[in-house]
Amino acid sequence: MPTTQKEKPFEMEGFYYPASKSAEAIEIQKKGEGYIVQLISFGSAEYLGEVQFVNEDKTQFRAAEQQGEAAPLYTLEKSSKAIQVRKYNAMDDEYEVIEYKQKAQRIDYKNYEDQVALFVAELYKSDVGSLDADQRRFRYAVYDLNGDGKQEYIVTILNGDYCGSGGCTFWVLDHNRKIVSKTTVADFPFFILESKSNGWHDLALPSDRKLRHLKYNNQYPANASTQEKYIGGEGKEVLGTIFKGI
């Protein structure tokens, strides 16, 4: 007689990715009798602290470093191996719920970082060797902006050449490191919007004391400060936030 294979019980620890094509994850690790949780956002990990359950059946929790009524609330959906996160969206001044599905292993970001480092070296050419470590600091995010199944790079270089009192410069690169656009006078953080222009996701970011709405038209605008003010609404929801804490 054929044997029936029992389904493995749900294990809380692991990696959880949102349904949208975002390079962001929640990682939960076992620690003693409890768990710790961290947010892996576009390659860098932010420690959120120990898991603190808020109900008796241990399906809802908050992270130790995110306390208070407005802190994200995590709900385990064991049957679908998912976590629903209810958190405050400052852009729209309301709460939203994002579902993260459990996956077997973490996305390997090392290749992304190497590609961006090559771009910075190519940008400076022979001068890159003369830059000290602080001048070579860069931040990047990966996101499929045009829906072709390939990740684009969003890159900013945090030195005096590309950041000043008016803001910073950022580039959008295709998956082969070819420059799609270069935009100046940009501040942080950036928001990737659900809305699209000419097949590419719109961006919203601070510039000249206003939150600007950047739309793609063969490229993203060259100067962020000249763009119209972002006004939220239906179809313009935020899919992802990048370059927080810069």
Describe the SSE topology:
Layout: E1 14-18, E2 24-31, E3 34-41, E4 44-53, E5 60-63, E6 73-77, E7 82-89, E8 94-103, H1 110-124, E9 138-143, E10 152-157, E11 163-164, E12 167-173, E13 179-186, E14 190-197, E15 200-207, E16 210-214, E17 238-242
Antiparallel strand pairs: 1-2, 1-8, 2-3, 3-4, 4-5, 5-6, 6-7, 7-8, 9-10, 10-12, 11-12, 12-13, 14-15, 14-17, 15-16
Give your account of this protein's structure.
It is a single chain. The protein folds into 2 domains: 14-103, Lipocalin (Beta Barrel); 110-242, no CATH class. It is 6% helix and 46% strand. The protein has one helix spanning 110-124, and strands at 14-18, 24-31, 34-41, 44-53, 60-63, 73-77, 82-89, 94-103, 138-143, 152-157, 163-164, 167-173, 179-186, 190-197, 200-207, 210-214, 238-242. The longest helix has 15 residues, at 110-124. The chain is globular and about 55 Å long. The mean pLDDT is 84.
Question: What tags apply to this protein structure?
Answer:
single chain; 246 residues; mainly beta; Lipocalin; five-stranded antiparallel sheet; 1 helix; globular
Estimated share of beta-strand residues? over 45%
Biggest sheet features: 8 strands, antiparallel, barrel
Strand order of the largest sheet: 1-2-3-4-5-6-7-8
What are the low-pLDDT stretches, counting only 5+ consecutive residues below 50?
none
Could you tell me the mean pLDDT? 84
Distance between the termini: 62 Å
Number of strands: 17
How would you sum up this structure in a few lines?
The protein has one helix spanning 110-124; strands spanning 14-18, 24-31, 34-41, 44-53, 60-63, 73-77, 82-89, 94-103, 138-143, 152-157, 163-164, 167-173, 179-186, 190-197, 200-207, 210-214, 238-242. By secondary structure, the protein is mainly β. It folds into 2 domains: 14-103, Lipocalin (Beta Barrel), CATH 2.40.128; 110-242, no CATH class.
